[in-house]
Design a protein that fits this description.
Blueprint lengths: L7 E5 L4 H12 L3 E6 L2 H11 L6 E5 L5 H15 L4 E4 L5 E2 L7 H26 L5 E6 L12 H20 L5 E7 L12 E2 L2 H14 L3 H13 L4 E3 L2 H12 L1 H10 L8
Parallel strand pairs: 1-2, 1-4, 2-3, 4-6, 5-8, 6-7, 7-9
Length: 270
């Protein structure tokens, strides 16, 4: 998909963070946008910020954990945009708590958004994507999908589930007009942790400071992702930090997990 002009991109979790940055980047490249988020005020602000060109922007308040809201939103998007070329499953929430102190209802709440939200969107938009000469599904995961980490049992499990889902989807859609991309972004202080369910407020702040220290500019991340999506890349790993994390966790998983386990008490934000 070398030319994005007049293509229609659906982005979940578009009101803030990486979703917002991806929306801005796609709009720069002449894409029409259908933006989904539970934060409708954030969507309104983004639309007002972006709406300077000829491309159409529609905003949709959707709780992606509810399948009926996804199907209704799909109908609304098609009624206005008439077709869909790209869907970016970006929306997500976080929990930073040890399993023993995690309420299982919270665990299910996170899974309903991070995993089932991705499945619902992919399942219900897939038939429309198949109608195009070339279309794209982009699923955003995390380095926590690659490795176990103390305090991330719920979050890592959900992102690992999305990774397995995407890997299988890639094989199912091979040779079809629908391309699939799995994105592993670098550390980003997007507000995900600040608004998460955490051990306590102090550790939440410390984790966010860690992200700020190691993050890449979010505009640069979004530009790299879209560039690789246009090239049809499947596994999109952004930044040196993620490159080495990805490599070591795949080549030396036992060593990595032993190292994290032995040093867990030195990690200040858990």
């Amino acid at each position: 998909m070398t030319n994005l002009k007049d293509k229609v991109a659906v982005i979940t979790g578009a009101a803030n963070g990486l979703g917002k940055a991806l929306a801005i980047e796609l709009y720069k490249q002449s894409c029409h946008l259908a933006l989904m988020d539970i934060d409708f005020d954030g969507l309104q602000k983004l639309k007002a910020e972006l709406q300077t060109g000829e491309q159409m922007i529609t905003i949709h308040r959707v709780d992606i954990s509810k399948e009926n809201e996804i199907t209704s939103c799909k109908e609304e998007i098609l009624r206005i945009h008439h077709h869909i070329n790209i869907i970016i499953n970006n929306a997500g929430v976080s929990i930073s708590r040890f399993l023993e102190s995690t309420n299982l209802d919270d665990f299910k709440w996170l899974f309903n958004i991070n995993f089932w939200g991705t499945v619902y969107c992919t399942k219900h938009f897939l038939s429309e994507l198949k109608k195009q000469n070339r279309s794209h599904i982009v699923n955003i995961i995390s380095d926590f999908a690659l490795m176990g980490f103390p305090g991330k049992t719920a979050y890592a499990s959900s992102k690992s589930a999305v990774m397995g889902f995407t890997n299988s989807l890639k094989t199912e859609l091979y040779g079809s007009p629908v391309y699939v991309s799995l994105v592993i972004p670098p550390p980003l202080a997007t507000g995900l942790v600040l608004h998460s369910k955490h051990i306590d407020d102090e550790k939440r702040k410390m984790e966010n400071e860690f992200l700020k220290k190691h993050e890449m500019a979010i505009e640069k991340v979004a530009a790299k992702i879209i560039r690789k999506v246009r090239k049809g890349k499947y596994r999109i790993v952004i930044g040196k930090f993620m490159f080495w994390t990805d490599l070591t966790t795949r080549l030396f998983p036992t060593m990595v997990h032993n190292m994290i386990g032995k040093n867990r008490k030195k990690i200040k934000f858990i």
